[in-house]
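Task: encode each sequence below as structure tokens.

Item 1
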Amino acid sequence: MAQYQSFPDAAGDSRTLEKLKALKLPDLAGRSFLDVGCNEGFFCGFAMYQGARRVVGLDHSALFVERARRRFPRCEFFQQGWEQLPDGTFDVILLASALHYADDQAELIDRLLARLSPDGLLVLELGIVSSPDSEWIRVKRGIDEREFPTMPKLRELLAGHAWKWTGPSVSQDGDPVPRHVLHVSRRRPVAYLLMQPPGFGKSTIAAGLFGPAGIPVVSGDQEISLAASGKREAPRALQQLLAANFSPYRIDQVIQEAFAKGAGEALVKQWLKQAGSGDFALDAYVPEQAQAVVVRTLNEAGYLPIVLGWERPGSPPRPDEDTLRQAEAYFASMGLSSPGAVDAAPAAQAIKGYVDALDVEAEGLVLKGWAATASGAVPEVLTVKVGNTIHLITPLERHARPDVQRHLGLSHAACGFKATVPLARNELPADLSRLEVFAAMAPGQIGSRLGLAAGLRQRLAGGN
């Protein structure tokens, strides 16, 4: 039988080294490799040379198989055709210059693709006839006639897979059809990830982009709401975590906490339950530092994750706490007596309040508590008597106290305060239980005395 593959010690009809370069095989180190129609095993030897962990070659010719075994004893060679493929899957499968011999070429491609590992690659070297039509064209060769596909036919055959034309292969004397190299792999469903913070327009973009394309959109917020309320089946630990912290007004914080407590992977899998088996888009805020968990989980589930990023148009929304504090402070300010007030109260009302906490910090003596009139007006000045010294503190740092609002029936919660008396630690008296605090609406007023909360009195009575 004539020598086909070329080696340093045996020149053959094939320009084998040049073909190896044209095939553009991926790195084979640590991977499994199958050559269907291996001849004398040139490409199998290359895979072993690169460090492949398993190399298998198939060929009908007993002579070629025997020569291959002698040249490359560490590889596995079998005298058989593609009708009987070896057990297991392979990371890389090569079918070079042989597809036209198959009775059903489309079926052979499908069977080889089925033997690929999840991230495997089928390398096809084949003749392609130039034609705009999708068809098989019978071509007369020197020894027989065989059918070769056109490029439109190949596109049709490979429509359900991911593939790329990598370039022309090496021409051989007598070739009636130019040879080409294709790399084919299983098409992974695509997960389009819209994970920007709240206020970035994720839902609007998802509806406008993926809705018309027929790609389902999974709403992360909706799935969390359903799981937290028990309306969507979820792992018990995840459901309890979501339910314990759920609020429709702070879902972004619920998501942050889920990832912070190690439940991110479970949450992504919960979202995936609604994705189906094809492409989908995920509309869900994920903290930037946790997005790698999403990508890894989707990769492991067989998806191709595509992270979409964009800049937010317009001004970013204020943090919720800041918004609430500013709103409460504004509302409370309208309750203060002022020359421009409409129907202002004619007399200053008694101010009620308590100092709840007293701490010595680096900047001084810090007082926290609440104070307000029955109508909800809040003081602007605190007068603090510490020992023999008096300190006037204004303006006050406002804090929301919804507990006081409910207890007194106020129209707002901005009655809490924090005030700092600028005293060094060595300037503080030994007995702080004699501390006196007065709240007034404006400087120059005596104001009302604030009590010390019972717990604070007990702590101070025990010593500073």
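Item 2
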Amino acid sequence: MSILPRATHSCDDVIDTVKYPLGFRARRGLNWFVIGLLYASFYMCRYNFRFATPGLVRDFGFSTFQITGMLSAWSIAYGTGQLINGLLADRIGGKIAMLIGAAGTIIINLIFGFASFAGTFSIFAAIWLMNGYLQSFGTPGMVKMNAACFRRTERGTFTGIFGFMIQLGQFAINNLAPVILAGFTIGAWVVAKDDWHWLFAFRR
């Protein structure tokens, strides 16, 4: 009876010793830059809600309970979507997952900005719930596209950049939203003070 020798190297160990082809790192960096900015924009289209809250309360009389209800709907949809879309991204690929999430998030934010024609809690909550689900395509798509581009020994760097993109999106909206809400005029383009609609969409 023979005993097979125990493997001393894993597949990851072998991959870590393979040299990258010429130009791979530059191409990977460009990919990270473009996809990273796209991923950061997901957070801009998420945290804009917090700056719109005073306007929603003023214009529609929403209570604190209703505002937190909208946020709860978003969170439930986002968490559920992470479970579903992680599996879905494995089947359809990271690029398609990111495209669905990005396009859907843009469209749903535009709809939210124009939803004041109805102004009911149920409509705003339903729209923001859809935003939560569509946003949940972002992380699975991002990881699916980029994880294969990094060796096991580089995945800490991958995680660090991933976290930086999150903070970049929050930093952008935290600085852009107050400028929008302060109001400004550029030629024929006039944005009134405290007009929360512009955080989501052009009004007219």
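Check on item 2: The CA atoms of residues 64 and 174 lie 22 Å apart. Residues 7-15 have pLDDT under 50 and may be disordered.
End of task.
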